[in-house]
Design brief:
The structure is a single chain. By secondary structure, the chain is mainly alpha-helical. It has one domain: Ferritin (Up-down Bundle), CATH 1.20.1260. It contains 5 helices and no strands. Helix 1 crosses helix 3. The longest helix is centred in the N-terminal third of the chain and has 27 residues. The protein starts with a helix and ends with a helix. The model has no long low-confidence stretch (mean pLDDT 97). Pfam families: Rubrerythrin. GO terms for molecular function: metal ion binding; oxidoreductase activity.
C-alpha cells in the first residue's frame, strides 16, 4: 500500500504521541496517591505501547519517546491535583480518537486504536 507524504506525517505524529503517552502514564502511575489510579495508568501505558506498535507496523520507523509529558504531568499532578489534571488527560484521549477517525478510514487497523482512545478518555474521567 502506498502511503502519501501527508499520511506518513500523520502516522508518525500519531506513533510519537502513543510512545510519549506510554512514558506519561508510567510516570503518573508512580506518583498518584490512589492505588486504583496507578493501576489504571499502568494498564493504559501498556495499551498505548500496543498502539505505538500498530503505527510502527505502518510507518516502519523506529521513534524514541519524548520525555516532556512524563516530566510535566507528575509536576502538574502535584500542583493542580487530579480534579483538574484528569479532565485534561481525558480530553487528550478524546482528541486522539477524533484525530484518528479520518486516517482509520484508510488504515482499518487504526480503528481499534481510535476506539481504545475513546475508552481511555472514559477510564480517566471515571477516576474522578
Amino acid at each position: 500500500m502506498n502511503i502519501s507524504k501527508s499520511e506518513m506525517k500523520t502516522l508518525l505524529k500519531s506513533q510519537q504521541g502513543e510512545l510519549d503517552a506510554v512514558l506519561m502514564y508510567k510516570a503518573l502511575a508512580d506518583v498518584v496517591n490512589d492505588a486504583r489510579d496507578g493501576e489504571t495508568f499502568r494498564q493504559l501505558a501498556a495499551e498505548e505501547g500496543h498502539h505505538a506498535a500498530v503505527f510502527h507496523g505502518l510507518t516502519k520507523e523506529t521513534l524514541k519517546p519524548k520525555k516532556t509529558l512524563s516530566v510535566l504531568m507528575p509536576i502538574l499532578y502535584r500542583i493542580i491535583g487530579k480534579k483538574k489534571l484528569y479532565p485534561l488527560i481525558a480530553r487528550g484521549e478524546y482528541n486522539a480518537a477524533k484525530n484518528y477517525a479520518p486516517i482509520a478510514e484508510r488504515f482499518p487497523e487504526i480503528e481499534s486504536v481510535k476506539n481504545d482512545e475513546k475508552r481511555h478518555g472514559d477510564k480517566v474521567a471515571e477516576l474522578l
